[in-house]
Structure formats: structure tokens, C-alpha cells
Amino acid sequence: MNASQEFRLSGIATPKDASEMLGEICEHFVEHADVHRTENKATLTSKLGSAEIRIEDRQLSIELRCPSQQALQLSQTSLAEHLFYFAGDEPFELTWSQTARLARLPNIHEVTVVSCEDVTPHMRRVKFACADVGPFIGGEMHVRLLVPPKGRLPIWPGQREDGRVAWPEGDDTLLVRAYTIRAVDAERGELWIDFLQHPSPGVATPGADFARDTQPGDKVALLGPGGGALPLATNLLLIGDESALPAIARIVAEVPEGTQIQAIIEVENQEEEQPLPSRASLDVLWLHRQTYFSDHSKRLRDEAHAAIAAMPSNTFVWVACEKEDIRSIKASLKTLQHDKKKMYAAWYWTRKPGGSTDG
Ligand SMILES: Cc1cc2nc3c(=O)[nH]c(=O)nc-3n(C[C@H](O)[C@H](O)[C@H](O)COP(=O)(O)OP(=O)(O)OC[C@H]3O[C@@H](n4cnc5c(N)ncnc54)[C@H](O)[C@@H]3O)c2cc1C
């Protein structure tokens, strides 16, 4: 990075235990950045820029360096959100050298619903027109869908002084849910999202219901993209349920020729399977939940454990599904001491009541 192109920001974080928080930062960001740790310092480098974090006087002294103002703001927000998350209920303060509050985050894309169709009985595809699909091509796959309250002009999120996202509140509260950009149609300027319809008796499912009810012309926003790039490796092991199927389908469609992919995908029944066109060599095991004897079958985990035990050690393992399944699969990767740079393991939903990914 040329110094003249550099945008910089420093901050001071005051956690209860600076060393413990530095450990948590390194542990988490190793899946998203190059992390270099010495006893009192960590350097995180990604395509957004670098973050140098030092322990000084029981505080964390932070120095961000990025190639653009937008990258700097994104790095600041991401770090701030994570630090407050790591602090949990413990007292925690974060201050920055510049405190310019943004009225609106720069990575908000206003989009308009173009069409809706059922891809399978339980997977509904919504296509959105987007003025600039460029940021969605070839990089990170995930977004947060922001749906404004019916009948109100949307207020989109900005940035708080501590760097975190300032979410609109009260009557302006948005519906916020995480989704995957299933495909980018650059020619038409469209983004596709596949929404699983997952009826949960007695429980509201606002994200799924948005896809069921939305009409062409509806205006919403996508925040991102972020949090999960296309994995590039010669050997890929992809594991997931329907919530991960859009991401798996996109990975399979976009990886280069010569990639060897083994995929294990759990769906309700054969009708929920989808064609997965790819230039890669692809071996898919479809699991049908409907054939299980118990509602709480651990079949996906069991197949995942077996595949992990048998895979070549240079395999990139990409796994996304329910929270407890992820915990169990991550534990087997840990036991094998699988390189954290060769894995993406994220829970996409939770069976726990009231436990949405953005609630
Ligand atoms: C990075 C990321 C990417 C994602 N990409 C996609 C995607 O492309 N397509 C997609 O459909 N989902 C995707 N998800 C999952 C999606 O965000 C969750 O399923 C979300 O909970 C749906 O919100 P909701 O309002 O419909 O239900 P919620 O209000 O969150 O939950 C209501 C009830 O439904 C249950 N529930 C939630 N999700 C599921 C599920 N998948 N299967 C069964 N029961 C469920 C909950 O346990 C709860 O009881 C993604 C999640 C993440 C974190």
C-alpha cells in the first residue's frame, strides 16, 4: 500500500482483560484475515487493509490502515461490532481518534424486487434490481436484507461514535436477516436470493414470509456484501442444509475447472434437490430428512465427521447449517487440528426459540 493512498484511524479499547480480548480477536479473525500474533501485538491483514492491535497499559491500542475511506469505515465497524460482542456483558469502552458519525453506512444498496418464483416446493427465489452489482461479483457472498416497516419511508442504518452500526429504532425498526447472494446477473443488473420457506408452527418467520409475500416493485436494501468469500482450493468439502444450499450452489458454479468437490447436503426430500452445474469435478451426497426415523437425527453431523476423517489434509472445509450441528462439526475439525485458514464454519440458524441470526 502506498503511503499517499493510506487512510488511517486509531482507537483505544478498554476491556476487562486486554490479553484475553486480543486472543479472541486472533481466534475469530484467522478465518477472515492473515493474522500475525506476538505476545503483546496482533496484526490482521485483509483486502480491506490492516489492523495493528497492541496491548498498552492494560488497554488495546488500535491502528487501522486502509486503501480507501470506505474500507476504513468498514474495518472500523466490523472491529467495533466484534469487540463489543467479545466483551459481552462486561464493561467495555471504545473510542476513536476521529468521531465522524455517518448518517448512512456506505455499503447499503437499495434494491427493487423484480420477480419471485419457486425453485423447489420450499425454496423461493427473489430477483432484485440493483444500480451497481459490481461489489457483488466474485468476492464475498453474504448480505443482510433490510426490510422497512410497511407504509413507512425507510431509514437506513448509520454509524455510531463508537464505530458500531446505528440501527433505526421504534417505528423505524427494520427487519434484518442474513442471506446469500445466490447469483449475480451483471447483464441485467440483478441479484438473486433463494429463501427457504421453513414453516415453524406457532413461531413467526419474518425473513421467509418476506419472500413469500413480496411483489415486484417493493423496495428494500442489502447491507454488504461481507463475511464469507468463495473458497479457492483444489480440494473442497462442502457441508450444509437448505439454508446453505444457495451458497453451496454458487460456490460450485463459480470455482475453476480442476477443483475436486465433495458435497454433503441435507434437504427435506428429493423434491428439494437442485441441479448443481459446475466446471469442477463434483460428488454430491444428498441426505433426505424425511427418511430419518427421529426428528433429532444427527445424520448430517455423522456424515460430516466421516468425510472430515477421510479427507486429504489440504482440503478446504466449508460448512454452514444449524448452530448445534456446527459446534459438533467444528469440534471434529479442532480434534484433527485442521488449519483454520482452510475452513469456513458458520451457523446460519438455530433451533433455539427466538434465536434468529440477527435477532
Ligand atoms: C451468512 C448467512 C447466510 C444465509 N443465507 C441464507 C440463504 O441464502 N437462504 C436462506 O434461506 N437462509 C439463509 N440463511 C439463514 C437465515 O438467515 C435464517 O434461516 C433466518 O433465521 C431466517 O429468518 P426467518 O425470519 O425466516 O426466521 P427466524 O425469525 O429467524 O426464526 C423463526 C423460527 O424458524 C426457525 N428457523 C430459522 N431458520 C430455519 C431454517 N433454515 N430451517 C428450519 N427452521 C429455521 C427458527 O428456529 C425459529 O424457530 C443465512 C444465514 C447466514 C448467517
Largest sheet: 7 strands, antiparallel
Derived from helix and strand composition plus strand pairing, the structural class reads alpha+beta
Shape: globular
Q: Reading side by side through the largest sheet, how are the strands ordered?
A: 12-9-15-7-8-14-13
What level of helicity do the residues show? Answer: 10-25%
- Give the quaternary arrangement of the chains: single chain
Relative strand content:
35-45%
**Could you tell me the radius of gyration in angstroms?**
21 Å
Question: How many discrete structural domains?
Answer: 3
Q: How many strands in all?
A: 20
Low-confidence stretches: none
What's the architecture of the largest domain in CATH terms?
Answer: Beta Barrel
The fourth-level CATH homologous superfamily of the largest domain is: Translation factors
Keywords:
single chain; 359 residues; alpha+beta; TATA-Binding Protein; Elongation Factor Tu (Ef-tu), domain 3; Rossmann fold; 7-stranded antiparallel beta sheet; 6-stranded antiparallel beta sheet; 6 helices; 21% helix; globular; binds flavin-adenine dinucleotide
Task: Note down, in words, how this protein is organized.
- 21% of the residues lie in helices and 37% in strands.
- By secondary structure, it is α+β, with helices and mostly antiparallel strands.
- A hairpin with a 2-residue loop joins β4 (49-56) and β5.
- The chain binds flavin-adenine dinucleotide.
